[in-house]
Amino acid sequence: MALITVPDGFPGIVGPMKAYPRGAQHLNGLADEILRGSAAELVDRVTADAARAPVSNKLKALLVIADKVQQGGRLVTDADVARAHREGADDKAIHDTVLIAAAFCMFNRYVDGPATSAPGDPHAYAAIGAKLAETGYVGSVD
Is 42's pLDDT higher than 70? Predict the structure, then answer.
């Protein structure tokens, strides 16, 4: 049971967004901007172990940065950024990596903070993801 009043039948982030549509409009606009743009490749390839992920060295370096942002933004070091640059990442790729990782942290805390429910069926996430990939985030909770 959520710690705040949210509409029944809307698990996860959708419950608070339904309850507070003005905030949802801005959060979904942010998600559309950063997650549906060119940086979305990073999100699609994140794995639990960036060092052994079957991805390019450039993406591995960016995943190290993303992982550190998840733990705390100040954990990203000059050496992490220098490695990403050496592997071919430009400043925009590094910026987008930090922004996406920070946004995921925010969205996860937005769901976890009020203890909203989660879909019980793991297959529900695939359907939700497919819909969002097709239509985007803006208007997804209308």
Answer: no
